[in-house]
């Protein structure tokens, strides 16, 4: 796994590089700004990019914009975005652009090494990894015409774990229920959120987006 890190905090940037190299992962380049990150992507053709949301010069959305551009230049690039705190607009934007090989984690998750590495590998393997705290905050904010109100408490639990990127078996293990029960809950979620089967649509992520968009 070839990795590029884009992070303007030198301590976190080098700490991440040391952590990943200690796990025998190939950190091919690090960058302190969006321009340097894109140059590194062009030069090294990484498999995964770890990108801070807020980067120079304005420290607003440079990381998100650069990540989108990097995936345009290198289709299939896995991107794990790091943020100091929950930023609803960025999380929603990230999901809206497609869920495959994408993750959104709070920076504090890096200190929980096993969880961070699990998320990194999940994204690299083509999955989605959304920080549980991000999911919790987004799903508890009230919205007009909130279809989430149709869901039972257990269905909300399942939806939150779906948004984190967990599969049915992992959800069943976390909630101490059977795989069949999880499958039933997911069918109910899709039905209550008016998500009909459609080719090319990830209904798991669409269920979260339906709530976030308030439609």
Automatic annotation (TrEMBL):
Any Pfam family matching the protein: Response_reg
Keywords from the UniProt entry: DNA-binding, Phosphoprotein, Transcription, Transcription regulation
Molecular function via GO: DNA binding
GO biological process: phosphorelay signal transduction system; regulation of DNA-templated transcription
Residue positions where 4-aspartylphosphate is found in the record: 52
HTH luxR-type domain segment(s): 144-215
UniProt feature coiled coil, ranges: none
Domain Response regulatory span(s) in chain numbering: 2-122
PANTHER family attached to this UniProt entry: TRANSCRIPTIONAL REGULATORY PROTEIN NARL-RELATED (PTHR43214:SF24), TWO-COMPONENT RESPONSE REGULATOR (PTHR43214)
Name this protein carries in UniProt: DNA-binding response regulator
Naturally occurring in which organism (per UniProt): [Actinomadura] parvosata subsp. kistnae
